[in-house]
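Question: Now follow the chain.
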Amino acid sequence: MKNLIRFGMAVLGTVVILSSCEKDDDGSGKLSYKVKPANFTASIGTTISGSGLPVGPTTNSSITWTSGSLYISEIDFEAESNNREIEYELKQPVTVDLFNLSPILGSITIPDGTYDEVELKLELKKSTTSNIPLTLKGTYTDANGAKIPVEFYLNEDFEVEVEAEDLVIKGTNDYLGLINVQLNKFLTNVISADLSSATKTGGVIVISNTSNSNLYAKLKSNLNAFADCDFDD
């Protein structure tokens, strides 16, 4: 079986053992997850149609992300079939490295069935410590080849919702979920004029809710569109 679930952030790889609201004697499948990042360099065009495309790391008019992390404060999971409902809430903070193929981060045990509603909510909470919910760092290479450091910080309450349909669990099979983080999609609505007019702090384009706020709003709007997940048994 191969099932595709599209969701907003790569951190679905952070998983926990689920508890069912009813006892199941027919078997259950185990879903395990890894995070697999891809497309670290994205084009920055003069128009939106030319932005967010995967390109080589030495390409002019591009951004190459080189490091980043996500800090999750809470994970809520729900799945429904015709005869059962599964719910789980985990309030245990976890940090996910967005730039390395992770080991298996955990497993979800789900009773047999076809689930026509699957929802995962990832709660990001504003932090006054070093545990900022989302950080990305990289380099912008302009049309002339000049390189400028870029840093993105999301430090506010934010909820990422993941939904899927027709997730089939059969027997006692083990299922692997590869979380494909496509970082180029984080820049799909950013154009070169946004970056050429951006304010620099110590030579760095800092993008946050207090610095280059227009750019911040554009990148934040992409948070629910830059990853997908493939499930295989």
Observations:
- The mean pLDDT is 79.
